[in-house]
Amino acid sequence: MIRISVAGLLILASLTAFNQQTARDTIAVGRKHPLSDWFTESKYALFLHWGLYSQYSNQWKGKTLYGIGEWIMYLAQADIKEYEAAAQFFNPVRFNASEWVQIAKNAGMKYIVITAKHHEGFAMFNSFHPFNITTATPFKRDPMKELAAACAKEGIGLGFYYSQFQDWHEINDWSKDLPKQSFSAYFKNKCIPQVKELLTNYGSISLIWFDTPGEMTKEQSLELVKLVRKYQPRALINSRIGNGVGDYETYGDHEIPVKNVQGLWEAVNTSNDSWGYAWYDENWKTADVMARDLVSVIARGGNYMLNIGPKADGTLPKFNVDQILTVGKWIKQYPDAIYGATASPWLQAFPWGDVTVTKNNLNLFVFDWKPGASIYLTGIGNKIKTVVTKNTNEKLRYSFNNGVLKIELPVRTSNQLLECIRVELDGEPRVQASMAIDPNYPTSLSAAFATPEGAAFNKLSWMEKFGEWKHRTVINKWNQQDGAASWEANFMEPGYYQVEMDYHACKESDGTEFDLFNNASDTLRLYLTATTGAKEADGDRPRFRRTKVGIIKVAAPGMTKISLIRRNAAQKGDIHIASIQLNKTNF
Ligand code: FHN
User: Is 266 in the pocket of ligand 1 (CB under 6 A)?
Assistant: First the structure.
């Protein structure tokens, strides 16, 4: 269990307040749990999907089934008796809890959440229900016990994932010989007793992570909350308990929001495309991508939980481990810019990177280091004290006028995974956020920051492969004739800007016209073609394309309103605009 960074008395006071909360049984998602400081501080966690599915590793009867590995039982529509058979071979003798915890620790992760029971219904712990690792496998050990001991020893937090609604071993609609059972019978006879086992047999846990609440009633969600509060009053509960009664929000799988999010929340992501181990999936994220994702989530105000799918023998995929350890080494250079750091006052990423805040310091993480290029931050109401590279204290050249900070990147390549610049201010950041249109970097005006009129914000979520989620915030539902969206943009330099549109358009919206106004002084007529041959009605897997659509002239630097207005009523389909990108041209 992670140590909570408040004095004992304060903890007592918080617990009292917390018990008053529990009298009402629930804390609304986003409201601060009185014992959540450790969560806010931690920022980075390891998610582990390990179960009987790891034994199958996406192969069923000699055939590979593509998609997220832990769904193999569903993908194969496996009968429970057939599926159970893998238990007799599941023998992860190379599992070493101390090694896993040490790896997580060296990777800079502060807590671990592991699947104690996933949708397949197999308990990875010693349970009264016989479909579990100590009873049904030759392994016989309880890995959750060993992990709990190793985590406690190393000061790493531990959370249990428990699939409370889906348990295909008890209820599914494909196994012919599965006796019919109501959800409430399963809930009472398996779910509640198993959650109680997890809450009472493993010492103090940091959190309990529920998933896919489905059609659970609020009463059922609250029954689980009560259980957690009774046996683990310090443990947090994630929002996937359902019905809005968790302590913090878990965002969609593989989703990193583009706009800051208030309250306690986390982003969860895979290291490749699957949560559970899949033998064929080598689409690993590399260390630099992992580091960027971590910074991006912290900059939006959240915690990042990165998943690894251990193999059936109890080992972790080597390439995956090497990458997270590389990130861990990098974090060691900038711990205060990561742990406990708060969100970017600019609410979104910059074209060159992203910002976290530590007290009076802005930590600028430069994702795209262009030797000699200038980067800009606008709307700063503070005085600037110093601008240095964070780990080497190299003083950087900068100018600061009317709230615009222009920093020159040194003319050298960056020798780091992700370089960090520290801007020390005279106090906590006071920023009026606006997007600086940077002459050195193509800058995106994202849909999430538009003001729509006669159009609407929407989030499109879809699966590329089974279980591999993608998400885009878009402006869509345009009025046929005059739907509009506008952005406030702060141009650092006048000149000509190449415009690119990032959008999805179905067959029926081929040839939709828009006008793009730059403060009504320059107008560009756009003609957007379909990005897919599919009709709107089949649009469950959108196809986004980024394409050049023309050039606009910006006469003077400063704030400008960029407006996009739909112009023709002929096209029947909708159009989904994710962003407009502006790229200064050099003529
Ligand atoms: O269905 C599960 C999936 O297998 C995986 O566990 C993810 C992790 O966030 N949660 C569910 C889908 O959202």
Answer: no
Residue 68 alpha carbon to ligand 1 centre in Å: 9
| 166 CA: nearest ligand 1 atom | 1
Q: Is 211 in the pocket of ligand 1 (CB under 6 A)?
A: yes
- The Cα-based distances of 15 to 28, 235, 246, 420 in angstroms read 17, 12, 17, 38
Name the residue at shortest CA distance from atom 10 of ligand 1: 211
Helix-helix angle 97-106:318-331, to 10 degrees:
40
Ligand 1 mean position, distance from CA 119 (Å): 9
Residue 126 exposure: Cα atoms within 13 Å on the Cβ side = 11
The pLDDT of residue 14 is 30
Q: Using a 6 Å cutoff on CB, does residue 268 contact ligand 1?
A: yes
Give residues with Cβ within 8 angstroms of 472, minimum separation 6. Answer: 447, 459, 460, 504, 542, 544, 576, 578
Phi, psi at 70, each rounded to 5°: -75, -5
For position 451, what pLDDT does the model report?
Answer: 96
Place of tokens 């990177």: 353
pLDDT tens column, 84-126: 999 999 999 999 999 999 999 999 999 999 999 999 999 999 9
Q: What is the dihedral of CA 129, 133, 138, 143, to 10 degrees?
A: -140
Determine the atom of ligand 1 nearest the C-alpha atom of 276: 4
Classify residue 93 by burial, with Cβ atoms within 10 Å: 0-12, 13-18, 19+: exposed
d(CA 549, CA 566): 15
CA of 20 to the centre of ligand 1 (A): 33
Q: Which atom of ligand 1 is nearest to the CA of 252?
A: 13
3-state percent breakdown (helix, strand, coil) of the chain, nearest 5: 25, 30, 45
Residue partners of 547: CB distance under 8 A and separation at least 6: 500, 501
**Per-residue confidence (pLDDT) for residue 482, from 0 to 100:** 86
| Token output for 66 | 């593509």
CA 76, CA 499: separation in Å to the nearest integer? Answer: 47
Low-confidence residues of the chain, pLDDT below 70?
A: 1-34, 520-521, 539, 569-571
DSSP string, 241-254: GSTT-SSBEEEEET
CA of 211 to the centre of ligand 1 (A): 7
d(CA 264, CA 266): 7
**Nearest ligand 1 atom to alpha carbon 118:** 6
Enter the pTM of the model.
0.93
Ligand 1 centre from 413 Cα, in Å? Answer: 40
Amino acid at 12: L
Nearest CA to ligand 1 atom 9: 253
pLDDT at 32: 55
At 310 the pLDDT is: 98
